[in-house]
C-alpha cells in the first residue's frame, strides 16, 4: 500500500521454518530522496534486532529464528527512514505488523482425561454413556488444521463414538455386569478432518457397568440340617441359611419366610440386615417325646424387584430345613396346671386341702417326690406328702388373719433331685361364722334435758369380721340387764342398723347426767353369735333452739359391772399419767441442779430486788452506812492490785463476796465517802486498762444522794396531804392487776 510515500508489501512469515539461511520476510522503502542520495533504514519493536533484522541500505527484513504461531501469532514493529549523512528523518515513523502463518504442527489433545463413565447393564443399543472432547492448538480460521474427528480404536465391539461430538454410546444390548463389570475403550481424535496427513491423539475411557436386579436369589443347597435340645427356651437361634444373589448393593437385599404351616407354628425366620442371612429361631417349646424331627420350608425373595425384568423369572427360591430335637433329662411336669385350692377355716390340723400331681416327661418315667418351698411357708401352715403330693393343714387356720396363702410346691425326680420343677399354689381359706358382731364404734350420744318422747338419739351399726356367702344379717335388742329401762327404746330397722329413741318426757341431769345403755347384737349364723355393746348417753343443757350448751361428766352406770376391756383401758391411762408425772419431776430436778451449778460458777448473774422505795434524804433509819462500809476489807483489796476488775476479783472469785443481810443504816454527820469514791475509780481504771476483760462488767451505786439536796422526795406514797389536785380514779379501770394500787390512791 502507499501511505505518506511509504511503499511496502504486507509481511507474513511461516512458522517452524527449518532452513539454514535467514527467512526473508519483506522490504521497506521510502520514495522520498535523501539530500545526499542515500537512505538509512532502521526498525524497532517486538523482536527487532533479535528475531528480525533489516538491511540498512536495501530495507530487506529477515527472520533469524524459528517461529511458533501457537506461542505468538504476530509481532508489532516500527520503521524509520533517515538521511544517512544528516541522520534526519525523511518521513515520520510508521508501524507495521508481521504475522506468523500457521501450519499443521499440533495434534489434538484430550485435556480432561482420564475419563470414567458408567452405564447400566442390559441397556439398549445407543444408550449414551458420556462425551469426550479433544482440542487442537492450530489456527481454527486457517485451513483444516484444527478440525477434529473422533473414532474408536479399541472396544468397538461394545461401544461407538460420534465422530463430530465425541459422545460414546453402547453398541450392544447384552452388557452383563456379572460377566464383565468394566471396559477400557480407546478413543482417537484426528485433525485435518480426518484427511491423510492429519495429526491425531488418543485417550482411554473406563466404562463401568452398573448393576440392575436381573438375578434372583438362589440357595446353594436344597436341604439344610440342624439340631437343638428340647429344653431350648423360646427365641433360641437354631441356625442360619443364606441365599446367594449375583447382584450387588440393594439388589441383594432379601427377606425370608416360612412357607409350611407346621414351620410357621413352631419356628420363626428373621433376616439379618448385615449379612442377609435367614436366622431360624424357636417359637414354641419343643418336646422330644412328642416329635423328634421338624421339617421347615424357607423361602427367600428379593426386597426390590425391577419390573423391567419380571419376564426373566420369579425372583425367589426355596429350601428345606430339617430340625432334629435332642432328648435331655427334663424335670417333672405338673398336671393339671390348676393352681387354686380351697379349705374351710375350721378344718382340723392334718385335713387334706388338695393333691398336686407331677409326671416325668422323659421316656424313663422316673418316680416323683414332692416338697414345699419353706421360704413361701415359713410358719409351716401346710405340709405335703412326699410320695402322693397330698397337701394337708399343719396348723389351725384363721380366715380373718390370712384369707389367702401362696405357697410353692416342688416336684423332683426320686433319684435326681437336681431335676426340680416349681408350681405356685394359691390356697383360699373359706369363711365360717366364728366371730360375733360388734358395734362399729364406741357410740356416744347427747340428749337435751327437755327431750320429748320418741326423739331419735343415735343410729347404731355393727361390723362382723366374717364374710358369709349370703351376706350379713344382724338383729338388735336391748341386753337383759337393761330390760327394766324406761328411759330409752331400741328399734331394729331391718337393714343391719338400729335406732335409739327417748321413751320419757324430759331428763334432769342433776339427778343423773349419763346413761349407759347395753345393746345386744346377733348375727344370722350358722351358728348365730352375739355380743353386747354399750351406748353412752349424756344429758346436756340446751338452748331454745336445741343446741347443746354443756354436759356433766359424772356417770351412773346402768350395768352393775365394767367389762374387762374397759378396766384394761382405765389401768393403761392411770399408768401413763404416773409415768408422765415421774418424767416431769425428773426434768425439774435436773433443771434445778443445772441452775445451782450455774449460780456456783458465776455469781454475777444474781439479781437482788428490793420493792421498798425509801423515804429520801430525810429517811435516816433505812441503812447503816457503817455496816455497808465494813462489808469488804478495803485494806486487803488495796493490797491485791494484781487482780483485775469485777470480772476477776469480783463476787465470783473472792470468798469475801458472800451475800449479807442488808444492815440498818443510821446516818452519821461525820461519814467519809471518799473511800467508796476511790475504790470505784480504781476498779474502773483497772477495767479500762485490761483489754481481756469482757464488756459485761458494770458497777452502780446508789449509796447517797449527796448533802443538802434541793430536790425533795419524789415518792408519792409518803405524801400525807389528802388534798392532792390529781385525780387517780382512772386507776379503777385498769383491771384486777392494779386493784391494790387503786386502793392505795
Keywords, separated by commas or semicolons:
single chain, Immunoglobulin-like, calcium ion binding, mainly beta, 745 residues, five-stranded antiparallel sheet, disordered N terminus
In short:
The protein is mainly β. Helices cover 11% and strands 33% of the residues. The chain is elongated, with a radius of gyration of 67 Å.
Structure write-up:
This protein is mainly beta. Helix content is 11%, strand content 33%. Among the domains are: 10-101, Cadherins (Immunoglobulin-like); 109-210, Immunoglobulin-like (Sandwich), CATH 2.60.40; 223-326, Immunoglobulin-like; 333-430, Immunoglobulin-like, CATH 2.60.40.60; 438-550, Immunoglobulin-like (Sandwich), CATH 2.60.40. The strands form 11 sheets. Strands 1-2-4-7-6 form a 5-stranded antiparallel beta sheet, with no helix packed on it. The longest helix is centred in the last third of the chain and has 38 residues, at 564-601. The chain starts with a strand and ends with a helix.
Amino acid at each position: 500500500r502507499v501511505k505518506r510515500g511509504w511503499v511496502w508489501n504486507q509481511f507474513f512469515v511461516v512458522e517452524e521454518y527449518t532452513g539454514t539461511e535467514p527467512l526473508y520476510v519483506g522490504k521497506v522503502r521510502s520514495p522520498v530522496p535523501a539530500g545526499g542520495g542515500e537512505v538509512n533504514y532502521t526498525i524497532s519493536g517486538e523482536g527487532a534486532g533479535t528475531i528480525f533484522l533489516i538491511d540498512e541500505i536495501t530495507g530487506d527484513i529477515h527472520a533469524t529464528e524459528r517461529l511458533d504461531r501457537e506461542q505468538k501469532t504476530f509481532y508489532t514493529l516500527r520503521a524509520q527512514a533517515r538521511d544517512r549523512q544528516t541522520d534526519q528523518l525523511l518521513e515520520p515513523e510508521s508501524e507495521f505488523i508481521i504475522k506468523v502463518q500457521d501450519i499443521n504442527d499440533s495434534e489434538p489433545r484430550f485435556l480432561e482425561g482420564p475419563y470414567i463413565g458408567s452405564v447400566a447393564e442390559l441397556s439398549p443399543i445407543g444408550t449414551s454413556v458420556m462425551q469426550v472432547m479433544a482440542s487442537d492448538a492450530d489456527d481454527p480460521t486457517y485451513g483444516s488444521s484444527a478440525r477434529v474427528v473422533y473414532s474408536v480404536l479399541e472396544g468397538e465391539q461394545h461401544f461407538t463414538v460420534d465422530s463430530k461430538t465425541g459422545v460414546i454410546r453402547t453398541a450392544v444390548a447384552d452388557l452383563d455386569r456379572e460377566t464383565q463389570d468394566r471396559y477400557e475403550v480407546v478413543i482417537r481424535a484426528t485433525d485435518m478432518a480426518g484427511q491423510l496427513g492429519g495429526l491425531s491423539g488418543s485417550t482411554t475411557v473406563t466404562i463401568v457397568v452398573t448393576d440392575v436386579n436381573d438375578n434372583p436369589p438362589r440357595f446353594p443347597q436344597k436341604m439344610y440340617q440342624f439340631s437343638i435340645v428340647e429344653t431350648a427356651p423360646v427365641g433360641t437361634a437354631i441356625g442360619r441359611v443364606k441365599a446367594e444373589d449375583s447382584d450387588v448393593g440393594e439388589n441383594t437385599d432379601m427377606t425370608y419366610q416360612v412357607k409350611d404351616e407346621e414351620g410357621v407354628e413352631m419356628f420363626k425366620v428373621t433376616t439379618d440386615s448385615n449379612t442377609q442371612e435367614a436366622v431360624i429361631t424357636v417359637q414354641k417349646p419343643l418336646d422330644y417325646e412328642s416329635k423328634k424331627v421338624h421339617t421347615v420350608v424357607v423361602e427367600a425373595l428379593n426386597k426390590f424387584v425391577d419390573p423391567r425384568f419380571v419376564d426373566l423369572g420369579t425372583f425367589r427360591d426355596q429350601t428345606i430345613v430339617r430340625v432334629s430335637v435332642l432328648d435331655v433329662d427334663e424335670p417333672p411336669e405338673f398336671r393339671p396346671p390348676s393352681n387354686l385350692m380351697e379349705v374351710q377355716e375350721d378344718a382340723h390340723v392334718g385335713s387334706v386341702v388338695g393333691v398336686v400331681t407331677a409326671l416325668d416327661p422323659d421316656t424313663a418315667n422316673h418316680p416323683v417326690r414332692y416338697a414345699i418351698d419353706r421360704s413361701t411357708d415359713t410358719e409351716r401352715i401346710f405340709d405335703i406328702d412326699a410320695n402322693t403330693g397330698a397337701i394337708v393343714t399343719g396348723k389351725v387356720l384363721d380366715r380373718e388373719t390370712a384369707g389367702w396363702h401362696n405357697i410353692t410346691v416342688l416336684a423332683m425326680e426320686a433319684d435326681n433331685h437336681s431335676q426340680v420343677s416349681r408350681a405356685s399354689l394359691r390356697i383360699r381359706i373359706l369363711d365360717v361364722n366364728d366371730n360375733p358382731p360388734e358395734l362399729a364404734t364406741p357410740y356416744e350420744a347427747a340428749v337435751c334435758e327437755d327431750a320429748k318422747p320418741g326423739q331419735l338419739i343415735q343410729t347404731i351399726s355393727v361390723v362382723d369380721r366374717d364374710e358369709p356367702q349370703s351376706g350379713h344379717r344382724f338383729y338388735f335388742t336391748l341386753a337383759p340387764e337393761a330390760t327394766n329401762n324406761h328411759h330409752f327404746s331400741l328399734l331394729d330397722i331391718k337393714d343391719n342398723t338400729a335406732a335409739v329413741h327417748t321413751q320419757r318426757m324430759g331428763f334432769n341431769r342433776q339427778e343423773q347426767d349419763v346413761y349407759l345403755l347395753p345393746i345386744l347384737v346377733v348375727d344370722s349364723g350358722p351358728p348365730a353369735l352375739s355380743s353386747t355393746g354399750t351406748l353412752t348417753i349424756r344429758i346436756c343443757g340446751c338452748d331454745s333452739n336445741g343446741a347443746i350448751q354443756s354436759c356433766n361428766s359424772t356417770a351412773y352406770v346402768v350395768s352393775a359391772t365394767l367389762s374387762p376391756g374397759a378396766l384394761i383401758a382405765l389401768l393403761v391411762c392411770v399408768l401413763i399419767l404416773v409415768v408422765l408425772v415421774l418424767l416431769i419431776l425428773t426434768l425439774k430436778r435436773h433443771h434445778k441442779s443445772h441452775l445451782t451449778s450455774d449460780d456456783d460458777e458465776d455469781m454475777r448473774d444474781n439479781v437482788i430486788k428490793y420493792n421498798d422505795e425509801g423515804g429520801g434524804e430525810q429517811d435516816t433509819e433505812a441503812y447503816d452506812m457503817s455496816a455497808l462500809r465494813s462489808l469488804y476489807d478495803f485494806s486487803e483489796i488495796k493490797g491485791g492490785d494484781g487482780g483485775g476488775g469485777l470480772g476477776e476479783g469480783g463476787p465470783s472469785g473472792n470468798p469475801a463476796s458472800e451475800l449479807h443481810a442488808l444492815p440498818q443504816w443510821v446516818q452519821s454527820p461525820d461519814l467519809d465517802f471518799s473511800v467508796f469514791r476511790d475504790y470505784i475509780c480504781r476498779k474502773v481504771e483497772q477495767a479500762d486498762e485490761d483489754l481481756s476483760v469482757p464488756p459485761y462488767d458494770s458497777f452502780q451505786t446508789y449509796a447517797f444522794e449527796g448533802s443538802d439536796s434541793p430536790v425533795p422526795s419524789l415518792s408519792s406514797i409518803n405524801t400525807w396531804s389528802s388534798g392532792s389536785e390529781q385525780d387517780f380514779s382512772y386507776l379503777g379501770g385498769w383491771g384486777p392487776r392494779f386493784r391494790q394500787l387503786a386502793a392505795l390512791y
